[in-house]
């Protein structure tokens, strides 16, 4: 390459580039030519270095010619590159032809989720009793989630460790019992407070707790509320037993243990023998052999009074069954988290 740099010299280099470009046969040749002309030690870089030795009066003209040469080299190499890519694609299309007249294989059909299966079965069981299914918000106020349900300010359930609070001061509902409060409030607006009240509700609830084999921070509950004259704890025990025996079979063991809930008195915890370990004890049941599948009890007289019902004349009961645990026990999931993993290897076994 000549040491002097001029318009004539640049034109000669441009012609040289054209000859080299016409000799390209393979995509690899484009990369080699790009390196020779546009690389760190390529011809274009060397030319720009020599620009400092060009007389001042000629420098603008020579610099403009250099920039034009660089742009043309970049453009020509890019065009050549695209040409090879198009040829490669056309070749692939020719070799891998697709007969569009063939019928498609079809996507596999989905399946009903275990929790949904349990919810639908419980709903079917309750239908003859005349329960109306309603929905409630998942983002609640303190009043419906706690205050109206006889849960005082100092109760541990209202601590930040157990409840998810939003920036607006609302909470992610910790139980579907908040729907019970809303329903009782609505019915209290009627002058005669029309009885009976038979309502069920289902959906997600949230607890700010450590996840383990039998706990998750989000799970599903199935709520039931029945308010009428003459209801007793025996009615509640009978209804829950009826549901669990129908879900798991008449031979499945069911028992009730004492519990404490501020919104029911007395309070009970329905339990079934663990299907994973057959009652022997495992992480799924906390090595107890029994799994608590919900909370229940007679509606506390303070809750009835809160909404204008006379606890000396009417009574009621409620339960919140954990449909996540019920589903886990129905399909022998060792960990409650498996209910929500969407693992097709597991879910396909259910279908």
Could you write a compact summary of the structure shown?
This protein has helices spanning 7-22, 27-38, 43-50, 59-95, 114-126, 142-145, 177-187, 233-248, 301-306, 323-330, 344-347, and strands spanning 132-134, 139-140, 171-172, 197-206, 218-228, 254-261, 264-273, 290-292, 294-299, 315-322. It is α+β, with helices and mostly antiparallel strands and 351 residues long. The strands form 2 sheets. Strands 1, 4, 5, 6, 7, 8, 9 and 10 form an 8-stranded mixed β-sheet that branches. Strands 2-3 form a two-stranded antiparallel sheet.
**Topology pattern, helix = H, strand = E:** HHHHHEEHEHEEHEEEEHEHH
Average of per-residue pLDDT values: 86
- Count all strands and give the number: 10
CATH superfamily of the largest domain: Bira Bifunctional Protein, Domain 2
Radius of gyration: 38 Å
**Strand percentage:** 15-25%
Shape category = elongated
Task: Tell me the major beta sheet.
Answer: 8 strands, mixed
SS summary, helix count: 11
Q: CA-to-CA gap between the ends?
A: 77 Å
Residue stretches low in confidence (pLDDT < 50, at least 5 long) are none
């Amino acid at each position: 390459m000549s040491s002097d740099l001029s318009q004539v010299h640049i034109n000669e280099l441009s012609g040289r580039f054209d000859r080299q470009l016409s000799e390209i046969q393979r995509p690899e040749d484009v990369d080699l030519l790009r390196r020779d002309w546009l690389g760190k030690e390529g011809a274009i870089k060397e030319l720009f270095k020599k620009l400092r030795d060009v007389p001042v009066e000629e420098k603008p003209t020579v610099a403009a010619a250099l920039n034009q040469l660089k742009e043309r080299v970049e453009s020509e190499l890019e065009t050549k590159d695209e040409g090879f890519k198009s040829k490669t694609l056309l070749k692939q299309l020719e070799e891998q032809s697709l007969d569009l007249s063939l019928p498609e294989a079809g996507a596999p059909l989905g399946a009903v989720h275990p929790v949904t299966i349990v919810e639908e079965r419980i709903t079917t069981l309750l239908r003859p009793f005349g329960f109306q299914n309603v929905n409630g918000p998942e983002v609640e106020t303190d009043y419906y989630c706690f205050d109206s349900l006889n849960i005082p300010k100092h109760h541990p359930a209202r601590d930040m460790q157990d409840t998810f609070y939003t920036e607006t001061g609302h909470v992610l509902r910790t139980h579907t019992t908040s729907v019970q409060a809303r329903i009782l409030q609505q019915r209290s607006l009627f002058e005669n407070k029309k009885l009976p009240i038979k309502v069920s509700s289902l959906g997600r609830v949230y607890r700010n707790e450590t996840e383990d084999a039998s706990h998750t921070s989000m799970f599903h509950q199935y709520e039931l509320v029945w308010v009428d004259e003459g209801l007793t704890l025996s009615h509640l025990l009978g209804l829950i037993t009826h549901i669990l025996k129908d879900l798991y079979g008449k031979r499945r063991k069911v028992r009730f243990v004492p519990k404490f809930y501020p919104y029911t008195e007395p309070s009970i915890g329905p339990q079934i023998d663990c299907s994973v370990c057959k009652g022997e004890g495992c992480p799924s049941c906390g090595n107890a052999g029994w799994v608590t599948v919900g909370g229940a009890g007679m509606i506390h007289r303070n809750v009835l009074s809160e909404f204008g019902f006379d606890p000396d004349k009417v009574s009621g009961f409620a339960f919140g069954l954990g449909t996540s645990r019920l589903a886990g026990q129905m399909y022998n999931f060792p960990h409650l988290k498996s209910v929500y993993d969407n693992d097709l290897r597991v879910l396909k076994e259910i279908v």
